[in-house]
What does this fold into?
Amino acid sequence: MQGGMVPHQRIDRTIAEFREFPRMTSTAPQAAPKPRPLSPHLQIYNQGFTGTLSILHRITGVGLSLALPVLVAWLVALARGPGEYASFMQCVTSPIGKLFLMGWAWAFSYHLCAGIRHLLWDTGWGFELKQVYLTGKIMIGTTALLTLILWVAILGA
Amino acid sequence: MQQSGGLRSPLGRVRGLGSAKHGTAHWWALRLTALALVLLCGWFFVKLTFCLAASDYGATMSWLSQPVPAALMSLFLLVGFHHTANGLQVVIEDYVRCEGARLALIVAVKFLAAAGAVIGIVAVGKIAFGG
It folds into this structure.
């Protein structure tokens, strides 16, 4: 029927015909069809500000789970004596160790601030769009400040 | 009333916890540990940044062998691992589809969290009580 067309051309043509359909069938003059909203779609989904903050809370939470065993290792090294403690600290204060610590410092600060924001929501406060954006921005600022303080401490160690 | 709940009152049905028999306990525990961690993290943040960063073995030992720091560190481990296990469970339940893998991961997380907390607390005990 539509010989010579590759599949996507055929689909394009079908869509075009579908869009024309009301004008073809109705005798009354019609306005051009409004473009339909396309956002909640797998390939062109628009990741917004609040959604990004939300998923970062999860990602930092999972990241911090990996930091707890390091805290335990620090305590075990401390309990085992000076030699063990020195080698643990040497490992942690190496360039790669410090890089991990700096990542965890950011995750710690972020998850703490975002967690406080979540607890505020749990009281029923702060769901207005304006408040959500405001607390989000305050949270980013506080996270940056805490992270900076921890980074200075880590780099100084 | 009679057709949906039998002899149980609506309040009894809500409290009684649905098919898992846990009701809102998991959600509440996550919030309670979060609130405790906000306080403990405040303490931990200050100590970590201003006292421990530059201190050596002796100074750290003498700090952690005091009763209050040792108790707060134990509390931090207990609450921290509890919160972590609960949080990871929520993430696993949301993203792991295969029933078997999901259950195995949740069990592994609970076991590892319990082990981590106890190992950490025993280490703190050894530091605090000497030996």
About this structure: Chain B has a mean pLDDT of 88. Chain B touches chain A through 31 residues (CB under 8 Å). The CA atoms of residues 16 and 22 of chain B lie 8 Å apart.
